[in-house]
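haha ok so turns out i had the wrong file open the whole time. this is the CORRECT one, sorry everyone. sequence first:
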Amino acid sequence: MTACERAHPFRLNGSLRITRHGGLNRLLESTVEQAFSLARLDRMYQALPPVADCDAFLQQALDTFNIGVHCTDEALQRIPASGPLVVVANHPFGALEGVILAQQLRRVRPDVKILANFILERIPELRELFISVDPFGGDGAAGRNLRPLKQALTHLQQGGLLVIFPAGEVSHLHLRGGTIDPPWNNTVARLVRRTGAPVLPMYFPGSNSLMFQLAGLLHPRLRTALLPRELLNKRNRTIAVHVGTPLPFARLKTLDDDAMTAQLRLRCYALAAHDACPAQPACLPGRAQEDIAAAVAAPLLCAEVEALPQEQLLDQSGEFQVWYARAGQMPWLLQEIGRLREITFRAAGEGTGSSRDIDLYDAYYLHLFIWDKEQRRVVGAYRLGLADEIARRFGVKGLYTHSLFRYRRHLLQQLGPAIELGRSFVRPEYQRSYSPLLLLWKGIGQFVARHPHYRTLFGPVSISGDYATQSQQLLVQFLRANNYLPQLARLVRPRRPFRAPLGPVWLRHNAPGDLEQLSELVSAMERDQKGVPVLLRQYLKLGGHILGFNVDEAFNNALDGLIMVDLRQTDPKVLAKYMGREQAAHFRVLHGAAPEAAGDDVAVR
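then structure:
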């Protein structure tokens, strides 16, 4: 096709009929085309050299506007190469995101169809991409849309990929919610339910200009009229697109259409966190970090382990032993534990920045640790503070948690006999196995079984600063809604409160109430797809409750939740898993509960 034979998809072509006078109508059309940049787009289109196919035209269009696309190869690998797939995305710009999605998706598979505004069919090079619908409503729109929806259904049933912008119109300013898509149409849920197709969320950061947003407050059609200008003002930019992970239909089928649509919208907007910086950088600018201390020689460690009284052996499994000791019994072991703490916490975006993570509390706290007999090394450890003993010697200021939260002795009286837990770690070489963490908690269970008057565990559980701010907001929101104890929380004041900015409206009003859904959503928000921190997850399974949140400046700005577990209220099966059946039954009887039993999970920084 030559330039002179080309259609004029950006011209009004007689569609504006204001008067009966054809010449006057054409003059008015020409004026509108100039005012709203349609004529300019048409000239650019006419100047394009002919191309062989749709893919070439998509690239040509992006090149003409000098638009770069940022979508990593790793992200594209999450797009299934075959089989039915529904792609949902937000709609921040107009036509541009459709072009970008088509171009990126067709790098992976050729069977891409986009459920799109019928006006876009006027571009002949792109017609093969579109299943055209009427998004404007009005008389007869529902009837006109039946046929394209059947086409979309057939395309999915034949194993194709279907792109849907469920908002049906471009994101715009909402006075109470910022610039965001309007409510999504649940047609997407009906198509997913009919076909059983998985759904892949994708997200475009950004929005149209302030003029576009303000015009829409006057009248929605003004936004539509300004879309050509918005396309032109995206020239010379790089547009990012974030790719989520496919959601299988099995995870969605129990939801009704409205709930499924809300879940898909939430998973799409969760990808916005990929644009955000972590709440705190993993290594703070200008903060010098000391080199990690040299490892303590194995013979020195072995000698200290062999010298410990046998009654301080809490548990053993294969090559692993679980011991507890005081600092005076284990000076070399404590130095090694401090070294390993720093290595492990730095890898998680935390750490003190010192060569070893050792503080004044270590001198009078107990230390529970796993010893690998074969490798002759420490595997992991926990620090235990017997709150009653420490408070008698030093007052509440002697407890580590008091350095993070202000509270008085009255809190300890409310908790009853309690053990403060903290500084837990499993060295990186052993983290692929759940066994060390399980063994640490069995050690804690055995310690409590031998000292059964202790009925409460408490301590700081960390959400590291390398989580995105929105992930931290979501975790805090969930814990306050589901695991908060206001009667005890009133007794606690954080020394450096968590003051995150108010989260986006889609996050504030759609946070999940289920731990597994929460972890999936956090994983979707994190670039490395990490979910709820393992130790926090385990603590919640024990029945943990939150009393407050503090930002720990000394620990690379980790967000600490002060968490408390009343072991009298812990599921008997979970208690038996860590204490043993008989010991758990004895503990429950001692504290006035039925001696039930059997097994599940737990943990803290």
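The mean pLDDT is 89.
again sry for the mixup
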